[in-house]
Every structure is written in C-alpha cells, then in structure tokens.
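This section describes the prediction task in plain terms. A model, or a person checking by hand, is given the sequence of a single protein chain and must write out its three-dimensional structure as a string of tokens. No templates, partner chains or ligands are provided. The sample shown here is typical of the held-out split.
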Amino acid sequence: MAKHMVLVHGAWQGSWSFDLIKPLLEQTGWQVHAVDLPNNGWNNETQIVANQQNYCEHVVQVIQQIGEPVVLLGHSGGGLTISAVAEQIPNMISHLVYLVGMMLPSEMSFLDFKKLCEQHFPDEDFAGISPYLTFTQDGYSVVSQEGAKKIFLQDCEPKLAQQLIEKLRAQPETGRDLKPVLTPERFGRVPRIYVEALYDQSLSINMQRLMQQLQPDHLQVMTMQTGHVPQAVEPELLIEKLSQLLVEKVSA
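The expected answer:
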C-alpha cells in the first residue's frame, strides 16, 4: 500500500504554500496531493462558493479518488477543513496533522475561539492579521504586504518571503467562517498530530496550546521553533520530525 499525504492550505494561499516540502515528502516515500480549495484565487475554473461544505466535499473527492487511507494535513485555517473531512470519512484518514492549524471543538468558530482566548489570557493581544486586512465590496479580504511580513513571515528569509507574499490572493470571507460539526464517534477517533510553532504571530503559542487542551484525546504534539509558516522557514527539519513521528505512530 502506498503512503499518501493530502495537503490543505489556509486562507489567502494555495497548493503552492507546500512547494518547499512536497519534494522532501516525496523523497521519503510519500505520494503527495496538494489541493487548491475552490474559489480561492488558484482554483477559479468553477463558480463553486468558498464555504465549509464545498471545501470539505472538494477534499473528500480527492481522497476518494486516491482510494486508500491518507494522512491529511492542514495548515492554519486548513485545519478546520481537515476536521470536517475527518468527520465525514474517518475510515479514509489514518492521521490528521494540524500544521499550526486551527483545531477547534465542534461548532466553534475562530471568532468564538478568540473570545475564549481573551478570557484565558486577558493581557495578550489577539489581533493577529486582522489590522492588516482590507475588504472588498463583494466580500473578499486582502492581506497587506506589511501584515504578511510581520504576522506570517517575520522569520522567513526576505527574498523567499517576498516571493510567497506575491502569491497571496484575496480570500472569500465565506471561506473563513467555518465551524464544522464534529462527533467523538467519527472525528474523535482519528489520531491527531499538532505541529506547534513557538514564535507564531498569527496563532500565538497560548492560542495553540489552548486548542490542544480543548482536544486532548488521540493527540500528539510536535514543536517547531518558527513562526506561522514552518514549511517555508525550516522545511527540512519539519519533514524530518514529522516523518519520524508518523513512522513511530504507524509502528506502535
């Protein structure tokens, strides 16, 4: 049986956000399937609305075409999509990997989670990327270059950071308002790995660890000393550590 890994990007991004780790995964024996979620700037050939149901269905179709259980990885906001997919087809997911991802309880939106963080950590600023967003009349959000550098890529080599920033696209706000319904019987039984980033300016380490506390069952944590995009800052180390962890879990 082949080893398959499906990669799901976060807001304003596309499958390109995994370009640096895709060949590294392939070198370690993985067949890699990086998706472009519908209506996110890099997959506009259809008029499919960017929302929770369509994101989930798109990824489910990719996995069903593979026809074998996969490791499903979601970066940042892609974490909400992989949770929804695991709820729908748990038997087709061997592991969920949240790469500094949003791993939220059932029916909790990110805004709900931010309010919870403010209660737990009243002295911390959880604005994140919000001050650096502008909004179009047709319901899209746009990240400023300044914001992307400061919040997402502050520890990335400047030339690479600029290349990545230029690939960001406007994000439909319907694609950020996600709160999947999750059950212990389906989503809850899928093993999960959380890749935390100690110096993230988008999802602070306090936010990441509160998410871990809210979803403690079947969870293993892996730590990276990076900001929000470990796959760009420390791609080799990320894949080395993740591959080792997945091998250990499969062998256990």
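For orientation: The first strand starts at residue 3 and ends at 8.
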